Amino acid sequence: MLYLLAILIGLAIGRLRGGRLANLAQLRLRWLWVVLFSLLIQLLILPLFSSSALLPYATAPLHLLSCAILIVWLIANLRTAPMGVLLLGAVSNFITIAAKGGRMPASVAALERAGLLRTADTLRKGETAANVVLMGPSTHLNALGDWLYLPDWVPFATAFSIGDVVIMVGLGWLIARGMKADG
User: Fold this and answer.
1) Which DSSP helix (H) or strand (E) runs through 48?
2) Does the pTM exceed 0.85?
3) Can you list the alpha helix ranges (DSSP code H) found in 81-154?
4) 32-45 vs 59-76: helix axis angle to the nearest 10?
């Protein structure tokens, strides 16, 4: 849901710059089905709208696979300028997730401030929660983990990483740029 914010900001900026939503169809993105496949994997393994995932098995390897698929797609579409920014964020997240065997290290404090108390409690118990593990001395690349947050009073508040911020910038840029007739 965090990326929805980037989409909305990209749409607003694109509109303010005189762009039109219909112009997004002019973005010549290759293999768009690959993104849908990757998102389908994430929808199956991550508990988005319930307390458990539809597919609660092999979460870590499937999470890595879905990220790798997106990276391949981004590389295939690098001819579009914002894709380099998206790729940088995706690689940052992938490296961090891979360093912990398929799960993103998350700060309990960030989770609590985002109102994700159940997830924070689960991590404190030494368990994993969906695709996150407790950030600490045993996790690597903590600076690239989920330590940033939207406060709990913001709709869809969550903890997120620097890689997510970079992805949001790239996504917003892609949409705003794509809405302009001249691309």
Assistant:
1) none
2) yes
3) 82-99, 108-113, 117-124
4) 160
CA distances from 85 to 55, 77, 88, 165 (A): 31, 12, 5, 10
- What is the torsional sign of CA 101, 161, 143, 13? positive
Residues of the chain with pLDDT under 50: 183
How many helices, marked H, and strands, marked E, lie in the chain? 7, 4
Alpha carbons 62 and 57: distance in angstroms, whole number: 9
CA 99 to chain CA mean position, Å: 17
Question: b/e map of 85-96 (b: 16 or more CB within 10 Å)?
Answer: bbbbbbbbbbeb
Give me 115's structure tokens: 């109102």
129 pairs with which residues across the strands? 132
